[in-house]
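Render this sequence as a predicted structure.
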Amino acid sequence: EAEMEVDEALRRAEEVEEVTEMRIEEFEVDPSKVMEVKARCREIRWPLLEEYDFRNDTANPLLPIELKPESKIRDYQEQALKRCFGNNRARSGIIVLPCGAGKTLVGIVAACTVKRATLVLCNSSVSVEQWYQQFLMWAQIDKSRVTKFTSGSKEKLHKDACVLISTYGMIGYTGRRSNEARELMADVSDREWGLVILDEVHVAPADTFLTCMTTRTRSRCKLGLTATLVREDGKIDVLNAQIGPKLFEANWLDLQARGFIAKVSCAEVWCEMTPEFYGEYLTASAALQRVLYAMNPNKFRACEYLMRFHEQRGDKTIIFSDNVVALKEYADALKRPCIHGAVTQNERMRVLQQFKTGGAFSSVLISKVGDTSIDLPEANVIIQIASHFGARRQEAQRLGRILRPKARKRGADGSDDFNAFFYTLISRDTSEMYYSSKRQQFLIDQGYAFKVINNLSETTDMATAEGLAFSTKQEQRDLLAKVLQTSEDSMRMDEEGEDNEIRNSAGGEEGGGGAGGGSGISRKRGSMSELSGAGSVRYHEVRPEASKLARDFKKSQKQAAKARVAGNP
């Protein structure tokens, strides 16, 4: 035993000697091979940390920027910044904070700390304008050193260090540019940026956005900001290699308890399908099924009841629908304005201004174009009537629309009452129920609980409410006939219009982020997981009628449905 102890002591001594003889090796990596080296190190489980010794950087000029004395940061924002600057160096990585918790201010404080040229990348032109205003609000910096680069604003960069705010689509655009944009982009590529702030960093793994960080720009430090570090295509892990690890993530319920974000009540309202609608649902195509369960008359009535209830309380309500056909029908029935891709910018601003000031209405209907590009901090109620399959990120983004801090209300027992409400209306026994449970997973992981309201008419006075839309059988039959007359081509055109509007809001050259012209048809690599509704694409049958027999059968089904609606046997 004594010999074994001696051998063990000698072995440990040799290990200590080996450790003391370790040397630090320094070598330069070809910039074009950096991503390849990072990927390889990740494969062999040698994680790399990207740090920037900005205090000793004499090669890049200083940016004259300071945080205004009246600008105060909260303790959790300070903790996030300590993770980034804890060792007197700027560490690349990702900070996760819920919507309304001050991600923008964290980015601005980081820029004030590094004091080098800063590039901010956003996912829409609206976000660019918001960042621009926030920089001027919170920081002491000459206005000439803060520049916007979008399809509508192409100002020349300051000759010295400056702050440039642009979009992923504008920087990553690969098509032909105007002379003005080409010269400005050349200046952006030639400069070395001390700090790149990636707003809504969960979009970064897309190939276009990776181009922004590799071939188009050179930077010393990358800071990603997001509220929802999730993607349905499994590419979130790529962010560790491209940007850095997650540096800080705030606890949503902790911030809620401390009053930094609103206290939200989440509810899932189950709505029975009427027999007529459900009968058509069972034999309809996938596209028509989505319209049928979105325009379920019982869902209409539940939506109108909840809208009236919260309007009487003095709340401001956003009604979301990804289905444009349903959105327009709801707007007509509820007599409230709606915003979708075809609505002009002037009309959109008019509606939003009236909503904010509490004019003629306190409820507004919005399609998926409002998921990221519309800021309505006054809203405290959201009602979802149709959503994008199983997208967890969209669910969290919509909840974020009502998370900004609001006045607390006390209950009879002295406890805090909810001051924000999030409703998801689901048609029972349809595919919508499956997608809803998948969408809620991210919020459940954050600690939120969804209360299921099985029958709203039994738990409230909805059954006796007067004037609710589509309460009679005849009104429901008329609505069904209208739905059945909707062509799949028109539905597809509406969806394409929405997608084009979202791409245009990304601020690419001449308003778009993709290549100009073309037929509007593109090919992309995908997976069965994405096509099932998990990603940004889905399976769509352009001509499901494979034979004359199938076409004749569908025609007879429509004729029978119209006969039932008309009251004929």
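Summary. DSSP finds 23 helices and 21 strands in the chain. The chain has two domains: 33-250, 263-489.
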